[in-house]
Every structure is written in structure tokens, then in C-alpha cells.
């Protein structure tokens, strides 16, 4: 059925529109006749309704009746709705028109790859960024490298050491050089030194940083060259200074110097605060004349802790570092972390000539090596070849550690001169430079590592279990404090008496004891009269006791450096060793993460102990615990 549309009633015009239409009519009237075209009234009407201001006349519309279809209102709204879903920001559009213009057979839009986020740089990439060039150029040394020492004859076999020293080493049972020594000795004992070339003011030596695993022979790597070089000296001056973090290490290194330097006439001194200050002063310097040129040293080599060194620098007359040919910082990362009175800055300043000092004639000794070359410009007369020649301090800094820091701030404080790095790595497959950059440490290949996760309240029981079950003796046991050490030893004594056993002797070694008590205990342990020594981290670094076959971390170490040094008390010099770590359940996650970050977790054997294992000794343990409570109650 066809419906004839009724014309819509005329709309009410606003005053503004009426004014507009009037002006429009007037404009049309004023137009020239030729330009005018016939218009259709309806068209004019619709145009004016649309509100467009257009002077162009519409072509005449045919006079037809308009037949309109019923409006598809609902459909239109739906389309509009869809559009809104898609483009929220756009103006509503004439959807009808739009659908009309989109051709149906368009090819699909090309798809572009999604924007990609660049991968975050790996930890290793980050570690290598901004790395010191000296570290990048490090000499990598394979830990398995050995070099036989020819005992007799002119040929040194590439070791760089003289005949006398070779004979001495062989006498000490050292018939081959360990990896770190194979590189360092020839480097430090370059040709010419044996021709009485003590100082090299015009061609000063390069400083050295060494990273090598625990027990790999770092001590001999500096003791041998120092003895070799200083043996040519005429006047006794303090020419080698070895700084170590603890008194026990000072004693140990002194013994090595004495053994290696036997028959060379070098005088060796120590300063640790173990003796009175005046006693130490009398050992180190002679004479009453203050500021005697070059100091008046009684020792060629001084081995000391940083605190006591600073005391002597500040308060001992005639104590001078102007002659230093070697400054050794062993356990360097630990010492550089120690800011005691800014010891390093004070030591370095003392090796350089002061700007305001001029030596007087009577102070000037006659022997040619009595005043260090770098200090000779202070003399009141020119010294050949010319006073204007630039002479640098010949003090060569040697840094050693199994966990060498790469902290640029700490290394910068050392003011290293053209440093040369040596990195000893256990495996050929690892990247030693990257490992140092990422604080991943090389361990002795002969070390076996185990961990045992335990309930914290039963930790002593687990500890006694591994001692008995695995026959642990000749062991160092590390705890977190002196108090914890004392308690564990006491509990073990009660445990042993409950078992009616006295085969295993266990003693505490801690800062609670006097220096003499500690020495006695350490000597007994070295003589194997004491089987197990329980200690805090006091002796976790550097201490070299060859028969230590086990290390137990009763309290798990809180950082990787501590772990490396503790476990490094065994498996030294190529011997095998076992390291155990007891990890409380609540610490397990942290400990595992620490190990994983150091790429070391896979090396750990994980062990368990349940009631089946612990049951047989639980009764003794509970009895010991009761006795311990009672004894603490009494005290
Ligand atoms: N060439 C060698 N031949 C035989 N034994 C050696 C040799 N070099 C060193 N040793 C012995 O190896 C042991 C470990 O040496 P040293 O104490 O110097 O290790 P280290 O690298 O300083 O360890 P740490 O990092 O724990 O201080 C010592 O007993 C030392 O006498």
C-alpha cells in the first residue's frame, strides 16, 4: 500500500531567522537578472531550514509527489550505537552516508607488528657497563697452572726468581709455583731488579690487583718478590708495609716472611697493639733525633693492622713511609671497607713528599739509598742528574683478595698507578672478568659443599648429629657471635658427658678471650690437641691451618663474601675439604637466593635428617639442654 505523505505544518520561525531570510531576499532582488535562475519554493524553504548560508541556487526540482517510506528509526539507532562503541572520541557521523561509501571488496588492512618493548639489559651487561679498562684487560690465570721450580743452576725456569730463593723454597718443600705465583712472580721480578735496582723513579712500577681463590697461595705471591727485591738494599729503611685486618693474620704472615727470608738479613717487624706502644716504638725506630732524614727504621718490612699503623704514623718520631717500595693490602676488600681514621688516605699521603719540608745538611745520610728518590728534591743541594727531573714515588701497591672488590669508589681511593689485574679462575669455562664484575667468586675445585635445612629450635641437635654421623673432626665451626660460641661449646660438653663420651674436644675461640688465651688455643688446635674450634668470623679470613678438613657454618653466613672466606679455611693448597651450612627453615629462602645469585646453588648438596636419624641422640640432647638451662640459671 502506497501512502501519500501529508505536508508538514510550517515551523514557527524565530526573529533572528526572519531577519536572516529578509536579508537574503533583499540580496536576491539586488542580483543582476542574468545571473538569477528560477528557484523552487520548496527547495528554497528546505535550504533556509537547513540554516546554510549559501548563495548558490539549487537546480529546479521536478514537481513530483514525495513518497516516503516509514522511517527505520530503530535500525538507525543501532548503527549509531555500534559506532559509539568503536570511536568514542569522534563526532557522531552520518552512518548512512558512511556505509554507502565503504566498498565491500576492499582487501584486509595490512597488519603491522605490535610495538615491542626492548628487553631489559641483562645483569651481566649492566655489570660490564662502565667497567674499569684495567679490569677488562686483566690477565686470566687458570687455577690448575703449575710451574716447577728448578732448584739449581742459572736458569730460573720462567719463575723469575734467583737461585738463592729457589733453593730456599725447595728447602721449605715448595717445588712448584701455584697459578697465582706463576703470573705474579715474573711480573714483579722483572729483569734488572737483581742488578741492585731497588727504586725505579723514572719508570715507576705498575700497581697490581689480584683476585684468586682462598688457599691458592697469594701470600707467597707477594712475600717472595718482596724478599727478592729488598735483599739488594744497603741501608735499613722501612721499604715494605703489609697491612692485614687481624693480629692472627699478622703473626701468620710474619712467619712466612721469616721462613722465606731466612739468611737474607732483612729485618721484619710487626705492629698490632699486642704489645705496649713504647715497646713497639722501640722495635720499629731507633735514635732520639726527631725528623732524621728518611726516618730511622729498625725494620725493612713491617706487617701491621691499620689501627696501630696510624698510631705510629702520628705519634712515633722517625717513623717514615717515604722509602716504601711495596705497600701490600691483603684481604683488600675487607680493609678498604674499614674507614678507621681514614687510614688509607693517611698512609698514601705519607708515601709522598710533603710540600713544606726541606732537609738540613746534618740530616742527610751519605748512603745512596738512604733518601727515597721521590724525596730527593727536598735536599738542599742538587742531586745528579738534575734536580728538575721528575721522579715519582716507586711505591708499588699490591692488592690481594679472594673476593676482590670492583667498587670504583674504593679503588679510586687507592690512587692506583696503571693497575694490572690478575684473576685466577677455577674453570676455563667461566668468564673471570665478568665474575669479578658481578661479585661471583671462584672457589677451590677440591671443596665439597653441603647444606642442611633444620628447625631452628633443634639446630644444636642437628649439629651434634652431623658431628657424630659424619665423623667431623679437625673442624672450624662458625657462629654469629662470641656468646653463641660459648653457649654451643657448653651444650656440647653437657651432651658428651650425657653420652659418657670424651673423644671429641671442642673449644671456643672468640674475642672474649685474651690474646694469650687465644694463641694457646690456636696452637693446640694446630697441634690437633683440640679437634673442633668454635669461633665467630674473627678467623674466617686468611687463617691457614693445613689440617682443617671440615668447616661448619652453625649460623648461616649473611653474605656471599663471608661464605667464601669461611669455607675457604678448608680445601687449601689443593687439598680436599668439606663445608657444611646449617640453615634454619626461616632462613632457607634467603640463603638459597644468595647462592643462586652467586651461581653457586648447583654446587651445594642438600641433605635431610628426620626423626629416624635424630631419634637415637635426642635423649642425650634433651638432658644436655636441661643441664645448660640449670647452669645459666645458677650464673
Ligand atoms: N707453591 C706452593 N707449593 C706448596 N704449597 C704452597 C705453595 N704456595 C702456597 N702454598 C701453601 O698453600 C697454603 C695457602 O696459601 P695462602 O695462605 O697464601 O693462601 P691464600 O691464597 O692467601 O688464601 P686466603 O685467601 O684464604 O688468605 C699455605 O699453607 C701455603 O704455604
Structural class: alpha/beta
Amino- and carboxy-terminal Cα gap: 116 Å
Strand segment tally: 17
Chain-averaged pLDDT? 81
Number of helices: 22
Low-confidence parts, pLDDT < 50 over ≥5 residues? 1-5, 34-68, 72-96
Radius of gyration: 44 Å
- Give the overall shape: extended
Q: Ions, cofactors, ligands: which are bound?
A: adenosine-5'-triphosphate
The helicity comes to 25-40%
Strand order of the largest sheet: 1-10-4-9-8-5-7-6
User: What share of residues are in beta strands?
Assistant: 5-15%
For the largest beta-sheet, the strand count, sense and barrel status come to: 8 strands, parallel
Biased composition (Pro residues): 105-115
InterPro entries: DEAD/DEAH_box_helicase_dom, Helicase_ATP-bd, Helicase_C-like, P-loop_NTPase, RNA-helicase_DEAD-box_CS
Keywords: ATP-binding, Helicase, Hydrolase, Nucleotide-binding, RNA-binding
GO molecular function: ATP binding; hydrolase activity; RNA binding; RNA helicase activity
Amino acid at each position: 500500500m502506497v501512502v501519500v505523505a501529508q505536508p508538514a505544518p510550517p515551523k514557527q520561525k524565530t526573529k533572528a531567522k526572519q531577519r536572516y531570510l529578509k536579508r537574503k531576499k533583499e540580496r536576491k532582488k539586488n542580483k543582476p537578472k542574468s545571473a538569477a535562475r528560477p528557484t523552487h519554493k520548496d527547495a528554497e524553504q528546505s535550504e533556509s531550514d537547513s540554516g546554510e548560508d549559501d548563495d548558490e541556487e539549487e537546480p529546479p526540482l521536478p514537481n513530483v509527489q514525495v513518497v516516503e517510506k516509514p522511517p527505520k528509526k530503530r535500525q538507525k539507532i543501532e548503527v549509531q550505537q555500534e559506532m559509539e562503541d568503536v570511536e568514542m572520541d569522534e563526532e557522531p557521523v552520518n552512518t548512512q552516508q558512511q556505509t554507502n561509501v565503504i566498498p565491500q571488496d576492499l582487501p584486509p588492512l595490512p597488519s603491522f607488528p605490535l610495538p615491542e618493548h626492548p628487553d631489559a639489559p641483562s645483569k651481566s651487561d649492566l655489570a660490564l657497563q662502565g667497567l674499569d679498562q684495567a679490569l677488562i684487560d686483566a690477565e686470566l690465570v687458570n687455577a690448575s697452572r703449575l710451574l716447577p721450580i728448578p732448584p739449581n743452576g742459572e736458569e730460573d725456569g720462567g719463575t723469575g726468581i734467583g737461585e738463592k730463593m729457589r733453593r730456599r723454597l725447595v728447602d721449605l718443600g715448595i717445588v712448584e709455583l701455584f697459578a697465582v705465583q706463576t703470573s705474579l712472580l715474573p711480573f714483579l721480578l722483572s729483569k734488572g731488579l737483581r742488578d741492585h735496582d731497588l727504586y725505579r723513579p723514572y719508570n715507576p712500577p705498575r700497581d697490581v690487583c689480584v683476585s684468586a681463590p682462598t688457599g691458592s697461595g697469594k701470600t707467597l705471591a707477594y712475600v717472595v718478590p718482596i724478599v727478592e727485591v729488598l735483599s739488594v738494599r744497603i741501608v735499613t729503611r722501612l721499604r715494605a708495609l703489609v697491612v692485614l685486618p687481624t693480629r692472627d693474620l699478622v703473626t701468620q704472615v710474619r712467619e712466612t716472611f721469616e721462613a722465606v727470608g731466612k739468611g737474607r738479613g732483612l729485618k721484619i717487624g710487626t705492629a698490632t697493639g699486642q704489645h705496649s706502644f713504647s715497646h713497639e716504638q722501640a722495635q720499629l725506630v731507633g735514635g732520639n733525633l726527631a725528623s732524621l732524614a728518611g726516618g730511622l727504621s729498625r725494620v725493612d718490612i713491617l706487617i701491621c693492622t691499620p689501627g696501630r699503623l696510624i698510631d705510629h704514623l702520628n705519634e712515633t718520631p722517625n717513623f717514615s713511609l717515604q722509602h716504601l717500595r711495596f705497600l701490600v693490602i691483603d684481604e683488600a676488600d675487607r680493609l678498604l671497607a674499614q674507614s678507621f681514621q681514614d687510614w688509607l688516605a693517611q698512609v698514601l699521603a705519607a708515601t709522598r713528599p710533603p710540600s713544606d719540608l726541606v732537609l738540613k745538611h746534618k740530616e742527610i745520610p751519605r748512603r745512596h739509598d738512604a733518601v727515597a728518590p721521590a724525596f730527593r728534591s727536598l735536599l738542599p743541594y742538587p742531586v745528579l742528574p738534575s734536580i728538575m727531573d721528575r721522579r715519582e714515588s716507586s711505591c708499588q701497591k699490591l692488592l690481594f683478595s679472594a673476593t676482590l672488590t670492583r667498587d670504583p669508589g674504593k679503588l679510586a681511593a687507592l690512587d692506583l698507578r696503571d693497575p694490572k689485574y690478575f684473576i685466577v679462575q677455577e674453570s676455563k669455562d667461566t668468564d673471570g672478568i665478568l665474575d669479578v664484575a658481578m661479585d661471583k667468586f671462584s672457589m677451590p675445585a677440591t671443596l665439597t659443599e653441603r647444606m642442611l635445612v633444620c628447625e631452628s629450635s633443634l639446630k644444636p641437635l642437628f649439629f651434634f648429629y652431623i658431628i657424630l654421623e659424619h665423623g667431623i673432626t679437625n673442624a672450624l665451626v662458625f657462629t654469629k657471635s662470641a656468646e653463641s660460641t660459648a653457649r654451643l661449646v657448653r651444650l656440647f660438653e653437657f651432651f658428651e658427658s650425657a653420652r659418657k663420651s670424651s673423644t671429641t674436644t671442642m673449644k671456643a675461640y672468640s674475642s672474649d678471650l685474651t690474646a694469650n688465651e687465644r694463641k694457646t688455643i690456636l696452637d693446640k688446635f694446630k697441634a690437633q690437641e683440640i679437634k673442633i674450634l668454635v669461633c665467630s668470623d674473627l678467623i674466617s679470613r686468611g687463617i691457614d691451618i693445613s689440617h682443617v678438613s671440615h668447616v661448619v657454618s652453625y649460623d648461616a653466613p649473611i653474605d656471599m663474601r663471608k661464605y667464601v672466606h669461611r669455607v675457604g679455611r678448608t680445601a687449601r693448597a689443593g687439598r680436599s675439604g668439606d663445608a657444611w651450612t646449617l640453615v634454619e627453615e626461616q632462613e632457607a629462602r634467603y640463603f638459597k637466593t644468595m647462592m643462586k645469585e652467586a651461581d653457586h646453588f648447583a654446587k651445594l648438596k642438600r641433605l635431610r635428617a628426620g626423626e629416624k636419624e635424630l631419634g637415637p641422640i635426642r635423649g642425650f640432647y634433651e638432658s644436655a639442654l636441661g643441664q645448660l638451662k640449670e647452669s645459666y640459671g645458677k650464673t
